[in-house]
Automatic annotation (TrEMBL):
Molecular function terms, GO-annotated: electron transfer activity; heme binding; molybdopterin cofactor binding; sulfite oxidase activity
Cellular-component GO terms for this entry: plasma membrane
A GO biological process held by the record: respiratory electron transport chain
Matches recorded under InterPro entries: Cyt_b561_bac/Ni-Hgenase (IPR011577), Di-haem_cyt_TM (IPR016174), OxRdtase_Mopterin-bd_dom (IPR000572), OxRdtase_Mopterin-bd_sf (IPR036374)
Family matches, as SUPFAM superfamilies: Oxidoreductase molybdopterin-binding domain, Transmembrane di-heme cytochromes
Domain Cytochrome b561 bacterial/Ni-hydrogenase: 5-235
Keyword annotations of the record: Cell membrane, Membrane, Transmembrane, Transmembrane helix
Ranges annotated as spanning the membrane: 6-24, 98-116, 156-181, 201-225, 245-268
UniProt organism field: Flaviflexus ciconiae
Taxonomic placement: Bacteria, Bacillati, Actinomycetota, Actinomycetes, Actinomycetales
Protein name listed in UniProt: Oxidoreductase
Length: 505
């Protein structure tokens, strides 16, 4: 047995192959939900540097929602495919967690056993040698087997770049797209060029990783396969076992590809079941990795008026006559007849607040970047009343009240089982409502909130993605258990798009 190819190395290599496929396919599913890439944070029409759709965006805000831009991927390509970004995000989270754990094991053992020396160059001679190898490959020849000890110079540079540059950058830019990171460490996100800069860099790194995998797997079978495959499969430098190793390698790749596709069809066969499983296995990582991050007042100072976006996307259209004549009546009265119902108090106490009542409460104002789970972003100056100040008008928190439910005059865009659309709602836990950036906003950029963005009042919960932030707010109430409402997942987007209750990533 060749000690340079121990079992742990071959096992982590195979696990990495399985997990990187899950990451790439779920990442493509997420990209298909908003097939455009920007460098500017306002995600404005016409500013895309790359798009995978022929649709042109209208310049006017509020007439075209981001869900209208969503594309459908085949389950053979995306995980799971067919416009299921919620499940795609869950698979991406699970794949990322396992991929990072596998990577940590690999790197620790790599340095612990001294095998890092065959991957990381220790001499400047590596560059001219790598150039010679590249010239040979471009000329459709290959270096002799003596150049592989066990890798040639070009392979060493490639492995070093992928393992110690591309992979860490993918992790760092991925973190920069999480709302919890953005609100706790906004300067870190600005370092990457904001949310869209991090998203674009992440995409470029994905392309590099994909091309590397295609070339890597191809060259394994093309360049001295009689030595490569026995080492990869058996850990043995034994060309006589090439046929056996080739068969096992090809069978393994086939099985892994079928496994990737099976995950798509298993998810689509019963989407609520898939969501329950994926949330259960990914939530511990969310809590450990991001649950402790609480935004502070000082963090908000990283953004200013120069960061304000010229264009702001939206999801969902304002309520229509069929959906809410009450809201339209309030709009016609310039919101004088609008009332916010605050309920769930002790002994069933409740009250109704006018917009003027809300404005009598202490005003909170801050700059924040809104991000949608589809990928767009927009920075604004938000102003309004803290949610806790509104709830305090009812008195102390009722015993057994563990959540706050915010309901909209608007309806869900689509229900998961295509039943009649129901009122849009979102539920926040106690830790979230205590955060500084959880307000009922009635102003944006020091002006009354626009109709298409939720007028007269919308919820802001800055440590979460936008699907938690209800527009056209109708009511706020204490509840004991969100499983009693809707489909019991904690919000309309959790019910209909199978997002996670925890919207921090």
């Amino acid at each position: 047995m060749d000690p340079d190819f121990p079992l742990w190395l071959r096992a982590t290599h195979l696990i990495n192959f399985v997990l990187i496929g899950i990451l790439l396919r779920s990442g493509w599913e997420m990209l298909s939900s908003l097939p455009r890439l920007w460098w500017s944070n306002d995600s404005a029409p016409g500013k895309e540097w790359l798009r995978f759709t022929k649709r042109k965006l209208p310049k006017e805000e509020g007439v075209y929602t981001s869900l209208m831009d969503e594309r459908s991927l085949s389950p053979l390509i995306g995980l799971p495919g067919r416009k299921n970004i919620g499940l795609g995000r869950h698979w991406h989270g699970l794949g990322t967690t396992l991929w990072m754990l596998n990577g940590i094991v690999y790197v620790v053992l790599l340095f612990g056993t001294g095998l890092w020396r065959r991957i990381i160059p220790t001499s400047w001679d590596i560059f001219p040698q790598a150039w010679d190898s590249l010239v040979m490959y471009l000329g459709f020849t290959k270096p002799s087997v003596e150049h592989f000890q066990p890798y040639d110079a070009l392979q060493m540079l490639g492995y070093t770049f992928i393992i110690f540059v591309v992979a860490p950058l993918m992790i760092l830019t991925g973190l920069a797209m999480a709302p919890a990171i953005r609100n706790r460490f906004p300067r870190y996100v600005k370092f990457w060029g904001g949310h869209q800069g991090a998203r674009s860099i992440h995409f470029i790194l994905m392309v590099i990783m994909t091309l590397f995998i295609v070339m890597h797997v191809s060259l394994v079978f093309i360049v001295h396969a009689e030595y490569n495959l026995p080492r990869m499969i058996f850990g043995a430098n034994d060309p006589e076992r090439y046929a056996q190793a080739f068969t096992i390698a090809l069978a393994t790749i086939t099985i892994v590809i079928f496994f990737w596709i099976f995950l798509s069809y298993w998810s689509l066969a019963d989407r609520p079941r898939a969501q329950r499983f994926l949330v259960k296995v990914t939530e511990p990582a969310r809590k450990i990795g991001l649950g402790w991050m609480k935004p502070t007042v000082e963090d908000a100072k990283a953004l200013g008026k120069d960061d304000v976006s010229e264009f702001h996307w939206t999801n969902g259209l304002p309520p229509t006559e069929d959906e809410s004549p009450e809201w339209l009546e309030a709009k016609a009265s310039n919101w004088e007849s609008w009332r916010l119902h605050v309920g769930g108090g002790a002994d069933g106490e409740s009250l109704d607040l006018s917009l003027d009542d809300l404005k009598q409460l202490p005003k909170v104002e801050y700059y924040a970047t809104h991000t949608c789970m589809q990928g767009w972003s927009g920075t604004s100056l938000w102003g309004g009343a803290r949610l806790t100040d509104v709830l305090d008008l009812l008195g102390p928190r009722p015993q057994g009240a563990n959540y706050v439910m915010v309901e909209s005059y608007g309806l869900a865009q689509e229900m998961i089982d295509h039943r009649p659309r129901e009122p849009f709602y979102s539920v926040l836990d106690l830790d979230t409502i205590e955060e500084q950036g959880v307000i009922l906003a009635y102003e944006r950029n020091s002006k009354p909130l626009e109709v298409h963005l939720g007028a007269p009042v919308r919820l802001r919960a800055e440590s979460n993605h936008g699907y938690k932030m209800v527009k056209w707010v109708k009511s706020v109430q204490w509840i004991d258990d969100y499983s009693k409402y809707g489909d019991g997942r904690g919000g309309t987007r959790e019910d209909s798009a199978l997002q996670a209750f925890n919207g921090r990533i």
